[in-house]
């Protein structure tokens, strides 16, 4: 059963400007250590991060959990490259989040669907 959906689009340039302006403090406030480690291996660093940023925003909308924060949501990839979401902490224990991310040179977009976990 679908509980909620969310979508977000992020301009790569704006994310890059935020990183250039606030450097590590911005990155460490938004992304987990694992997300940053993975992003540093990508040739399109800012596009990759913009996709993760958009995914987190979409997840906030889909989950509807008002206390969920940036570092509670971790976006990783499975062995085949498909993105997936880890919820860190005491949040969203009864839901599963499905996420899709796409990006081009200037924009990244993400979609999230929250479903009730099957027992």
Structural write-up:
- By secondary structure, this protein is an alpha+beta fold.
- The chain is 38% helix and 33% strand.
- The chain has a 3-stranded antiparallel sheet with strand order 1-5-4. A two-stranded antiparallel ribbon has the order 2-3.
- A hairpin with a 3-residue loop joins strand 4 and strand 5.
- The longest helix has 19 residues.
- It is globular and about 45 Å long.
- The two termini are 12 Å apart.
- The model has no long low-confidence stretch (mean pLDDT 94).
Mean pLDDT: 94
Strand line-up of the largest beta sheet: 1-5-4
Tell me the Rg in angstroms: 14 Å
The percent of residues in helical segments reads 25-40%
- By secondary-structure content and strand pairing, the structural class works out as alpha+beta
Largest sheet: 3 strands, antiparallel
Question: Which key phrases capture this entry?
Answer:
single chain, 119 residues, alpha+beta, globular
Provide a compact summary of the structure.
By secondary structure, the chain is an alpha+beta fold. 38% of the residues lie in helices and 33% in strands. The chain has helices spanning 12-30, 33-39, 45-63, and strands at residues 2-11, 73-77, 83-87, 95-103, 107-116.
In terms of topology, how is this protein built?
Layout (H helix, E strand, L loop, with lengths): L1 E10 H19 L2 H7 L5 H19 L9 E5 L5 E5 L7 E9 L3 E10 L3
Antiparallel strand pairs: 1-5, 2-3, 4-5
Helix pairs in contact: 1-3
């Amino acid at each position: 059963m679908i509980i909620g959906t969310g979508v977000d689009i992020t301009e790569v340039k704006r994310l890059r400007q935020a990183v250039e302006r606030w450097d590590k403090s911005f990155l460490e406030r938004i992304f987990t250590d694992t997300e940053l480690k993975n992003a540093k291996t990508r040739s399109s660093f800012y596009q990759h991060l913009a996709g993760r940023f958009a995914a987190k925003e979409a997840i906030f909308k889909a989950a509807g959990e008002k206390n969920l924060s940036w570092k509670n949501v971790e976006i990783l990839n499975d062995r085949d490259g498909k993105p997936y979401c880890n919820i860190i902490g005491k949040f969203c224990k009864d839901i599963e989040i499905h996420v899709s991310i796409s990006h081009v040179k200037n924009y990244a977009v993400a979609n999230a669907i929250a479903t009730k976990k099957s027992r």
